[in-house]
Amino acid sequence: MKKRKLIKNGPLEKGDIVICVKMVDDFSPIPSGMQGTVKNVSEVFGQKQYYINWKNGSKLALIDGVDQWRKVEEIDDDEESENINEHQILLVRTKSDILNNNIFIKKPRL
User: Fold this and answer.
1) CA 5 to CA 8: how far, in whole Å?
2) Is the pTM of this model over 0.70?
3) Helix or strand or coil: residue 98?
4) CATH class of 2-84
5) Bridging pattern class, strands 90-92 and 104-106
6) Where does residue 69 rank: exposed (0-12), middle (13-18), buried (19+ CB within 10 A)?
7) How far is CA 26 from CA 22, 23, 33, 37, in A?
8) Average pLDDT, stretch 67-92?
9) Where exactly are the structural domains of the chain?
């Protein structure tokens, strides 16, 4: 089974899936939580720009060092928890935790 791992402002390549956290654009920013696919990467005036096809149809680019995003990576469930039995722990994640890439582990009541 595959799980999604979110990486804060991770370097992007063509084909990567991203989720916008915050875009600095005075006229028509991409809303937080919008998902898109990287179509091209370039460097303009020393800053990387990631050209994205957003789910809402927009083609606005993310600018490294200005905008905030999460890179979505698919990982195997077995890789993440090789020695952990899913009945031993409960992962508790809030929206804030997901955006900040935090995981809190709560021990189950016996």
Assistant:
1) 10
2) no
3) helix
4) mainly beta
5) antiparallel
6) buried
7) 12, 9, 18, 22
8) 64
9) 2-84
DSSP secondary structure string for all residues of 30-75: PPTT-EEEEEEEEEETTEEEEEEEETTS--PEEETTTSEEEEEEEE
Q: What pLDDT was estimated at residue 85? A: 46
Residue 68 structure tokens = 């905030």
Identify which of 60, 62, 78 has the alpha carbon closest to the alpha carbon of residue 8: 62
Give the Cα separation of 45 and 68 in Å (integer). Answer: 19
Q: Do the beta carbons of residue 47 and residue 63 sit within 8 Å?
A: yes
Helix (H, G, I), strand (E, B), or coil: what is residue 90? Answer: strand
pLDDT score at 7: 87
What distance in Å separates the CA atoms of residue 108 and residue 86, rounded to the nearest whole number? Answer: 11
